[in-house]
Fold this protein.
Amino acid sequence: METKLQVDINWKTKRAIVFPISISGAIILLMMVFGVIMLMGQGNIIDLDSGMFYKFMTIHGTGMIGAAALAGSAIMWYFLSQYVPLKRSAFIINFCFFLLGVTMVLVGIFAYDFAGGWTFLYPLPAISGGMWGETGAVLYLGGMLVIGTGFLLLFLEASRAIIKEYGSFANSLGWPQIIGRNKGYGPPPAVVASTMVCIVDITALIAGAAILVISIVNVYQPTYTIDPLLAKNLIYAFGHIFANSIIYMGVIAVYELLPRYTGRPWKSNKILLIAWNMSTLFTIIIYPHHLLMDFVMPKWMLILGQVLSYMNGLPVLVVTAYGALMIVYRSGIKWDVASSFLYLSMFGWVIGVVPAIIDATIVVNHVMHNTKWVPGHFHMYMGIGACAMIIGFMFYITRVDGGRVDREVDHLALWLYLFFFLGVTGSFLFSGKVSAPRRWAEHFPEWVAADVAGAIFGTAVTLCFLLFMLRYINYSSKIGRMPSFKPDIRTTTHG
Amino acid sequence: MYQQAAWMITLFLSVFIIFIFLFVLKRSGNQVEYSGIQKKGYFIRNIWFVVLFGSLVTASYVTLDDLPFERAEAKGIPIDVNITAMQFGFETSVDTLKVGDYVAFHVTSKDVNHGFGLYDEDLNIVAQTQAMPEYTNTVYYQFEKPGTYTILCMEYCGVAHHIMKNEITITE
């Protein structure tokens, strides 16, 4: 049966994601600029005041995670809409909460000097060392709480719709197929992945809300305290899971679109279902790999942090990325920029797993924790993995629903983006190898050369991303308003 | 040593991954029946899983044998050195030690979270742990070379985070 690249969903749903994706892209672009400025400061290319560096650092982390999560949730929403009826109001409310929260965060940072990092490590918001006061801290923490609340409502709505359609999360995760009670395939991968994201993110957001509220109270009333180790656990449970979930939302575009491009099905067989169940569990419980240098943590938690971080690589290495390679191999695929980015995203995810797993090794972490090795690995799977998924989706939707046609410059920019991003991450990893700390406004002369290289590569990456954004914005107004375009090439994939 | 190993392993595996993705990309054009690809692909996947799982289990077994917070038992009774971090500096109970001294650094904080990073004269980290309020983390290190070792903050703690430092001199 012939089908098309387009997804058959309500045009209003298509329209609903256009502006949030535009805002996400614009924020990511701005955060890239801030990232480059920080590298220029570390590399002594510009004279950057340390207070301003830490403000940029705070907004860079917050903005990147928030914007990428918004874009990821739009991708999830878009494809999940095919299988379960979702209330668009939840999506719109989340976006409104996001805008309100971002405004509070920006005011807290740039008007009231909050620079506690996106990890807002308790009790730093209340004990600033003289840089910011109560107002800045509470605006930032409150903004994060508002953003988190919006996402929580969104994931609760997605959960409601999935459970209503499939009966339970166990069913939408394919347990009946895994234990052999039901024959055949499980729910479509988009549903399985969305279930995983709902479970892990609801868990993360509740942990995050708890520590945010406690931190706000602590700012106003310093005698109200909690155990700092518990606070650290809550913060990393929130931060790790929420940040990690972005790529699991983005990969839904890969599961949905590569089959359409290749005409080969990507069904939820037993192995795929087991892999996603493993990812659900592991994503929630491996956060202690951020606490490997907290030796007062229970030993079993640190060991689990290492071993399960290793095992968390298996689902992507053995199932998701491997599945993408199989689907593409000798498929006769006609590559366009969108499909190329989706393929690239698999590469970014896989290559990012390597230094991540190495850093999750306790003896290695002992000499590399909080060096630039850490941003080295997460920029790989965020920049070349998750962002490539988002960019791929932007190119896809403007092609099939906006009338955009690929140009040579798009293909060239894709390769340049990859090359320069590898340069950025390579410079970070090298800095980590030579023990340069992350989150330092000024580096010793021995570390500066790699910072300069990172700044040059980062500038080039930012220019490439600017081009991608211009291409998206140029055609985004037509999405959901144009008649069907033709690109329809392949047999059906999920029918 | 671990830094160099991490770098080399990452480079090696990155080249392998680049090769695999380029290989598949190069062979994406000629269409063949998917069922044949699936049959062969699932067979290779089983081998890939066994190799990967075996490697990860082996790596776990080897590396978990050398936990930095359990090195005390391995080398006898250490010299205790107390480290107290605060915005924006480190207090140390001892500032001079000798080559061969086996030291237990008991690290805590008076205010917010900091990181205790011990750097040798070549600016390589040789040991670290977190400096936390209300808790004391203990990390062990045996000094094998004379010189000035620098303590730097490894956890973001505020506007002067990057200038937090202290020194320990190791004599012959």
Observations:
- The longest helix of chain A spans residues 228-262.
- The two ends of chain A are 9 Å apart (CA to CA).
- Chain A touches chain B through 81 residues (CB under 8 Å).
